[in-house]
Amino acid sequence: MNGTDSPRAVVELARAKDTAIALESVTKQYETGGVTVEALAGVDLAVETGEFLSIIGPSGSGKSTMLNLLGLLDVPTSGTVRLQGRDVTELGDRERTRARKESIGFVFQDFYLLPTLTAVENVTVPTMFDRDRDATNRAVELLSRVGLADRTDHTPNELSGGQKQRVAIARSLINEPRIVLADEPTGNLDQDTGATILEEFRRICDDGVSVIAVTHDELVTEYADRTVELIDGVIDRVG
What we know:
By secondary structure, the chain is of the alpha/beta class. It is 32% helix and 28% strand. The strands form 2 sheets. A 6-stranded mixed beta sheet has the order 6-7-8-3-9-10, sandwiched between helices. Strands 2-1-4-5 form a 4-stranded antiparallel beta sheet, sandwiched between helices. β1 (19-32) and β2 (35-48) form a beta hairpin. The radius of gyration is 18 Å and the shape is globular. It starts with 6 loop residues before the first helix and ends with a strand. The mean pLDDT is 90.
């Protein structure tokens, strides 16, 4: 897609089964201090399977709100959210939680690793309530894939920033999601380490997983297939 696509074309793509996730005419409003704030205003966006999308824009432009909606952590005031072609807008809390667990992984700027757990234990955290499942072997496999085969038993304080982020990426993949959402994934990393992380995201996309990254880092846009710019809750540019 590009900046000339019509809303109808976006909607048609949104409803296609090979589209990972989509927003159709999505508006999100908040009430604060008796004032209605419109964080997103009629946004249309469809993310294709295996696409690496970066979302940029100034602070307060609606990036975090969009990420929360794409991650099924919030619901729109109006409009439709589709996950792999399925309308998930009206799902209840439990159903949204199940859909997130089955289809969406998260990577955060601050890693959010548990300090008392080893790397392999941190990777298995999203599966801890699955009583009939031992995800240790898959966690070891994922850590090896991201270059940490020799760090599986290390705790976060024994890892560098880049290594912590790779543990976080492995954790995001433990449930075999179709989508990975990344919030400022290179924000705490130097440029060389950031490039290593972005190369890993590209490999993830090659496996058919869609990566959506909210960022202020121009380096991310160099690795992305497409960049969406948000200004005041509206998509101002797609490139």
